[in-house]
Specification:
heterodimer; A: Fumarate Reductase Cytochrome B subunit; 3 strands; B: two-stranded antiparallel ribbon; 8 helices
Chain lengths: ~350, ~200
């Protein structure tokens, strides 16, 4: 109920201007032009072309307007802008990551593995991360099917087969969307306190974040890059899930204009975050040795911690434990998501 | 080859809604959907005009252009039809259509809309001509029987004309010669002129 009200508020906020127009048309003010003569001139028809609406007994309340003025603008936005923005974003990020990998290679743990580990991501935080990550990837691919399938997949699969796939993609996208919304809200709230920018984050950026150039700039629990990614996800990603909810629950009186603008924002924001996810996944896997472990089994090697998050490591180094004791405690080494869940309260 | 078009002569339309009713009856359109509607401008005031609107079967139709599953198509006669088996109910055709023609049986949570429904120019759909499936999903196929759309055939003032573009134009041209003015062919420029306008724009550059 509360959630429903929230959607309604969002919709009303977004639809403010469109609703205003609707109410205006309900007051039945005369269309411009005919003064006295009853002449129906070109001004009259121009006003209709520009979206003037009338009264309809056969479509009460809904379609009393004659022309959907914004439809053609939306069509251009969706067919030309959004598809191009997406293609460019993916090309740029995939290309940049590839070039970067070729130039820099994997950032190794300089001192090698110490065999001692320290807890970085407790279980609850890993669950939030993978909740959002898995859902986002599914949403990204099902969204890409809807946006690019017509030009890329129909020639391969044919219309009928693609129709089944697209139906599956749309249904999945629409039913999982609200779960992603919930995950995003929880994640933003849970991680907000770690992501307040500090002075050290700016000097981290100034020194190239340890990815560009030599040496490893100082960083706390989260470095400047991680914080920037958090804020991008919180804002642009937040826009994705909010616009998605407005699109997903069309029964709250959203106007066609609201749906058009929401659809546009949803596509652009989704593609931007989707493309940047390539960089995020790269940095966490191929890009940096030892980083992924923190998000899989919760613990990172102390040498990795000292190298990448020296200020945080200073705070927690007395909590370090032997990697072997961790394995004994939590069973086999955690190489799969959720396959191995060590205790969230280390010794 | 014919190029089928609708023309609503707004100097003749009297807002009787006969076209709406005839369409609904002929095609057994689902409850809550009117494939055709009549809109009155300046109702009860000076300069009142009524327009009967449905799918205009546009040249270079926006709905075809935005459909993510490419289920909407144009026949050789220029009639815009769609395959309901492929339609995923995303609503994009409704967002893009200048005339508000595509409609959906429901509008509920998780973007559930059902299959899009719209005017077929009484030309059925992709199912076998005259089959039960065609009738159930798309309504009548009067074109296959050599007849014109029921809305135009039933129009009491012959405001709504349907048929091959050259015949429709001849009838309307004759009317405007008698009247001495031609304001009323509502929507023609928008429905049939987009490609020409874009070409003209391209040539101007």
């Amino acid at each position: 109920m509360g959630l429903g009200l929230l959607f309604l508020l969002i919709c009303l906020f977004g639809a403010g201007t469109a609703l205003g127009q609707q109410q205006e048309s309900m007051s039945q003010r005369p269309v411009a032009a005919p003064q006295g003569s009853g002449d129906i001139g070109s001004d009259y028809w121009r006003a209709l072309r520009q979206g003037e609406s009338g009264y309809s007994a056969s479509a009460p309340g809904r379609q009393s307007d004659l022309i959907n003025v914004s439809g053609s603008a939306w069509m251009t936005q969706r067919n030309e802008e959004v598809t191009k923005i997406g293609a460019w974003a993916f090309a740029i990020f995939a290309g940049a990551v590839l070039l970067f990998y070729l130039a820099r290679g994997t950032v190794r743990v300089d001192k090698g593995r110490s065999g001692r580990v320290v807890e970085r991501w407790p279980l609850a935080h890993r669950i939030i991360h993978w909740w959002v990550a898995v859902l986002f990837i599914i949403q990204l691919f099902s969204g890409l099917v809807i946006l690019y399938g017509k030009s890329l997949l129909i020639p391969l699969l044919g219309k009928e087969t693609f129709g089944v796939l697209a139906q599956l993609a749309k249904t999945t996208h629409n039913y999982l969307g609200p779960l992603l919304f919930v995950g995003m809200v929880v994640m933003i709230v849970a991680w907000l306190k770690h992501n307040i920018p500090k002075g050290v984050d700016f000097s981290w950026f100034a020194k190239g974040g340890g990815l560009v150039g030599k040496g490893h700039p100082s960083a706390g629990y989260l470095n400047g890059g991680e914080k920037a990614w958090f804020w991008l996800v919180a804002t642009v990603g937040g826009l994705i899930v909010v616009t998605g909810m407005v699109l997903d629950f069309p029964q709250f009186g959203q106007t066609r204009e609201t749906m058009q603008s929401m659809n546009y924002l949803h596509g652009v924001a989704g593609l931007i975050v989707g493309a940047m996810t390539i960089a995020h996944i790269y940095i966490a896997t191929l890009g940096t040795e030892g980083a992924m472990e923190g998000m899989l089994n919760g613990y990172v090697d102390v040498n990795w911690a000292e190298q990448h998050h020296d200020l945080w490591y200073e705070e927690v180094k007395d909590q370090a434990i032997d990697a072997e004791s961790l394995q004994q405690e939590g069973g086999s080494s955690g190489s799969t998501v959720g396959g191995d869940q060590p205790s969230s309260s280390p010794a | 080859m014919a190029r089928m078009k609708f023309l609503c002569d707004t100097d003749r339309c009297i807002e009787c809604n006969g076209c709406v009713t005839a369409c609904k009856n002929e095609n057994e359109v689902p409850w809550g959907i009117n494939r055709r509607r009549v809109v009155t401008i300046n109702d009860g005031q000076e300069g009142e005009r009524s327009v009967s609107v449905a799918c205009m079967h546009c040249s270079d139709a926006p709905c075809i252009s935005v459909c993510p599953v490419d289920t909407i198509y144009q026949t050789a006669d220029g009639i815009v039809l769609h395959d309901k088996d492929i339609c995923i109910g995303c609503g994009y055709c409704f967002f893009a259509c200048p005339f508000g023609a595509p409609q959906f049986p429901t509008q509920s949570s998780f973007g559930s809309r059902g299959k899009m429904d719209k005017c077929t120019f009484c030309a059925g759909g992709p199912e076998k001509v005259g089959s039960i499936d065609e009738k159930r999903k798309y309504g009548s196929n009067r074109i296959a029987e050599g007849k014109l759309p029921i809305c135009a055939e039933m129009c009491s003032t012959k405001a709504l004309i349907a048929g091959d573009a050259s015949d429709v134009s001849d009838i309307y041209r004759e009317r405007i010669v008698w009247r001495g003015s031609a304001a009323g062919a509502w929507g023609w420029d928008l429905a049939y002129g987009r490609r020409k306008r874009e070409q003209a724009r391209g040539e101007a550059k």
